[in-house]
Description:
- The chain is of the alpha+beta class.
- It has helices spanning 41-48, 61-68, 81-91, 99-110; strands at residues 2-6, 9-17, 24-30, 34-35.
Amino acid sequence: MIYRNLDGDYGTDHLLPHPGRSHVEQIASWDGDFSGTGLTWHELIRIADSPSPATEGVQDTATRFLLLLPLLTDPDVPETALARLIAALVVVGAPQDTVSTTAEHLLAHLTKRSRHDPTWASPLSGS
Length: 127
């Protein structure tokens, strides 16, 4: 991840290095809007679960997973995704009483699915 904060050049670039190659692949960037291919669920898990002890960077798989999560562009995540996200949030200290709802909201947002909670009052439903 490269955070740019130069005058007139703000944004975040997500680069994927390839061992043995002299170049990196840009998988996403944020310059006000998201651009790039992003990651599928399986790519995200593969990268999060494969830290290289020989290189610098975050080695903890839960932290790696959460850092990569904003790059998820896959609308079809497995049913195990919610449990994986909850577990990662707990590892980094998310409050137990809100972690499930937080994880549901994050996955719904990232997969572009709307989430309906029947307990929410809405003027459109007559509540």
